[in-house]
Amino acid sequence: MSPGDVELESKARDILESVGAFELAALVRVEWNPRLRSAAGRAHFEEQLISLNPRLREHGTAEIDRTLRHELAHLLAHARAGRHRISPHGVEWQRACADIGLAGEARCHTLPFPTQARARRLLYRCPHCGRDFPRVRRLRRAVACLACCRRHNHGRFDPRFRLKLVRQIRV
Hints:
Layout: H1 3-18, H2 22-27, E1 29-32, E2 41-44, E3 49-52, H3 61-81, H4 91-99, E4 122-125, E5 132-135, H5 146-153, E6 164-168
Parallel strand pairs: 1-3
Antiparallel strand pairs: 2-3, 4-5, 4-6
Helix pairs in contact: 1-3, 3-4
């Protein structure tokens, strides 16, 4: 662990303690992760770990602080929700952002990190409306067409509108 990590962990603990999240503050860890490419940071809920992109150092302490708080908000929102599933940048996360001093925080950063376009090799289709959903990764759980669920089932999941894999392109 480099000296920067110790300072960042101390800052993370102070931020969490200021909003009364003492248990989380005692467990949180911060690391610089050179494997992060286009992401500025990442929150790992199971380990109470925040990984930061080392390229953040090129953008100054203000950007490091903003990214640290952004990722802390993810951990805080997840801890507050308990066993309930929450949207990654939903209402709970926005509330946590406001609590730790990031009111109105954007979902994504605008830093000039290199990105890599990935081919969408999977094609899913709604069996009801026929809309196509190209994907990079295979769906791991049942996912339905939101437009059809809203139109025909008050926005609730309905297996009639479950997306079907129609094509997989191999390279």
